[in-house]
């Protein structure tokens, strides 16, 4: 198994510096945090002209795709989503997200932000966060999402800044434990990238959908491009499906551990999925799908029956 220790102390120097510069000015930090988060969660809205120039520089610099981006492969990946979009979004909820929750250290980030945890029985925050995640996936996979001026590029740029701002707040809170590694570190980001790419492909295969090697590698390539925009380092973003799946499996095996944070997140996700189904007759279906796509061991780690 690959040794990931060094990557748990590495984050995203460029995005972290942009956010740090923003919060070092004289205005009250709480108010500024609300303004920044509102802008970042409005996926398609532009950055206000009143924001400092380094925000404009960030969006201009990260708007350029890498030279190795292959639009032929990207178009193939877009066609996969056009054909199997509903299945991909179902696998996102029933495999990708809960697999990320099995990583105990990374799950702490989501619990600390409170954005995927129910409050007083309300699923409103869970709904919003899951809708943001779904919109991110749709934006980068839809036709033209990664073209010049595409929605996918802008959304990924904002997600990268959101990650940096979350790191800032968590570290400043003083409640983060050093043994968890840096919040949203490179290993965590690489694992999340694989949950959106190679794990989705595995889920499609479990669903009886057969893709060619060319199609699988093209899907991985699209997410490798997205990873570049998000600030994932190249050595943690393989070029093909086999290497990507192996990397993702290694990351999940390395970080898999039972945690209260993971159980809280899994319960919130399950409650949300049951809430979205009409009536009570179908309430057992989300758990069945989670059991099918996660397997017994992962369900036990997440406290799922």
TrEMBL record:
Any one GO MF annotation of this record: oxidoreductase activity
Name of the protein described by the UniProt record: PF09995 family protein
Signal sequence coordinates: none
Domain ER-bound oxygenase mpaB/mpaB'/Rubber oxygenase catalytic: from-to ranges: 107-244
Database matches in InterPro entries: Lcp-like, MPAB/Lcp_cat_dom
Family matches, as Pfam families: MPAB_Lcp_cat
Highest taxon, organism lineage: Bacteria
């Amino acid at each position: 198994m690959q040794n990931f220790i060094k990557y748990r102390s590495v984050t995203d120097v460029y995005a972290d510096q942009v956010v740090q510069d923003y919060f070092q000015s004289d205005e009250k930090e709480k108010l500024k945090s609300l303004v920044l988060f509102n802008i970042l969660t409005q996926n398609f809205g532009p950055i206000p002209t009143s924001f400092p120039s380094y925000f404009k520089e960030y969006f201009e610099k990260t708007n350029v795709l890498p030279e190795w981006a292959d639009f032929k492969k990207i178009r193939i990946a877009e066609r996969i989503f056009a054909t199997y979009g509903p299945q991909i979004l179902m696998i996102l909820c029933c495999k990708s997200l809960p697999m990320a929750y099995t990583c105990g250290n990374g799950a702490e980030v989501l619990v600390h932000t409170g954005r995927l945890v129910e409050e007083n029985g309300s699923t409103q925050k869970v709904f919003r966060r899951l809708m943001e995640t779904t919109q991110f996936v749709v934006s980068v996979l839809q036709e033209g999402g990664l073209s010049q001026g595409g929605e996918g590029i802008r959304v990924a740029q904002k997600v990268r800044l959101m990650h940096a701002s979350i790191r800032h707040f968590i570290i400043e809170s003083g409640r983060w434990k050093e043994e968890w590694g840096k919040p949203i570190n490179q290993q965590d980001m690489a694992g999340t990238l694989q949950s959106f790419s190679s794990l989705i492909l595995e889920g499609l295969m479990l669903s009886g959908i057969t893709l060619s090697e060319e199609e699988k590698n093209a899907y991985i390539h699209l997410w490798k491009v997205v990873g570049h925009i998000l600030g994932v380092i190249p050595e943690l973003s393989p070029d093909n499906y086999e290497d990507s799946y192996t990397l993702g499996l290694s990351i999940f095996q390395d970080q898999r551990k039972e945690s209260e944070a993971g159980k809280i997140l899994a319960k919130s996700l399950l409650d949300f999925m049951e809430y979205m189904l009409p009536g009570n007759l179908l309430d057992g279906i989300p758990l069945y799908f989670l059991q099918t796509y996660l397997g017994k061991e992962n369900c036990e780690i997440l406290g799922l029956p």
